[in-house]
Design goal:
Elements: H1 2-12, H2 16-25, H3 27-52, H4 59-70, H5 73-104, H6 116-122, H7 124-143, H8 161-169, H9 172-199, H10 208-234
Helix pairs in contact: 2-3, 3-5, 3-9, 3-10, 5-7, 7-9, 9-10
C-alpha cells in the first residue's frame, strides 16, 4: 500500500526541466534569466575591451592577440556560440519583462519621474535594440569585413587586423558610429548592472545607492575606454 502511494506521489512530481521552464516564464524568472545572461554579456564586453586596448601597444601586439584568438577554435567558437545564445535570450526575456511591467500598470503615473535613472530604465529596450544593431554592424566591419572601405594589409602584404582597425577608424563616419554605439552601450550597461543586483536579490537600503554609483562608473568607464581607440586613431596616436 505504501509503495503504491509512493509511486503515485512520484508520478505527480514535475520534471526538473519543466520546473525550470515554468520559473523562467514567470515574472521573477524572466528577470533572473535576463540578469544571468546580462552577466555573461558584461563579461564578454570586459574581455573584448582588454583585447582591443592592445592596439595602444602597436601592430605586433594587436596582431598577435588576433592570431591567438584565431588559432584557438574552441575559445573563439565557444565565445561566438555563447553570444549567439545569450543575446537573443537576453532580448527575449527583456521583452517579456517589459510587457509584464506594462500590463501590470496600464495607466501611466500622474506625475512622471524624469530622473536620469528613470529615463534610462524607460529606454532600455530602445537602447538594447540599437546596441544590438551596432553589434551586427561591428561584426560586419571587423569580423566579416563586409563594410570595410579599405583592404587592410600589413607591411608584408598579409591581412593585418591592426591596420584594418586603423584604416577603419580613419574614416570619421565609422568612428562616429562606433562612438555613438558606445555611448548607448554605456547607458544600457550602467542601468543594467544596477538592475542586475536587484533582480538577483542582492539589494538593500544601505548599499543600493553605492551600487547605483558603482554601476555608473563601471558602465561609462568601460565605454570611455572603448572610445579612446577611435579617438586615438583620429588624433594620430594609434597609427
Amino acid at each position: 500500500m505504501s509503495e503504491a502511494a509512493e509511486l503515485k506521489r512520484d508520478d505527480t512530481v514535475e520534471p526538473l526541466f519543466g520546473s525550470l521552464v515554468k520559473f523562467a516564464r514567470s515574472s521573477v524568472g524572466s528577470k533572473v534569466v535576463m540578469a544571468l545572461t546580462g552577466v555573461v554579456l558584461w563579461g564578454f564586453v570586459m574581455g573584448h575591451l582588454a583585447g582591443n586596448l592592445l592596439a595602444f601597444l602597436g601592430r605586433d601586439a594587436f596582431n598577435a592577440y588576433a592570431a591567438a584568438l584565431k588559432g584557438n577554435p574552441p575559445l573563439l567558437w565557444g565565445t561566438r556560440l555563447t553570444l549567439m545564445l545569450c543575446v537573443p535570450v537576453h532580448f527575449y526575456f527583456a521583452f517579456r519583462s517589459s510587457r509584464a511591467n506594462a500590463d501590470a500598470r496600464p495607466v501611466a503615473y500622474a506625475y512622471e519621474n524624469k530622473t536620469p535613472a528613470r529615463l534610462a530604465s524607460k529606454t532600455m529596450m530602445l537602447s538594447g535594440l540599437v546596441v544590438g544593431t551596432f553589434l551586427l554592424y561591428h561584426l560586419a566591419h571587423f569580423t566579416l569585413r563586409l563594410v570595410n572601405v579599405t583592404a587592410a594589409k600589413g607591411p608584408g602584404g598579409d591581412f593585418s587586423p591592426f591596420d584594418m582597425l586603423v584604416e577603419g577608424f580613419k574614416n570619421p563616419l565609422i568612428a562616429l558610429i562606433y562612438i555613438a554605439g558606445q555611448l548607448l552601450l554605456a547607458q544600457h550597461l550602467s542601468h543594467g548592472i544596477s538592475s542586475l543586483f536587484q533582480h538577483l536579490g542582492l539589494w538593500g537600503r544601505r548599499f543600493s545607492p553605492w551600487l547605483k554609483r558603482a554601476a555608473l562608473v563601471v558602465g561609462y568607464g568601460l565605454c570611455a575606454a572603448f572610445i579612446t581607440i577611435p579617438v586615438s586613431v583620429l588624433l594620430g596616436v594609434i597609427k
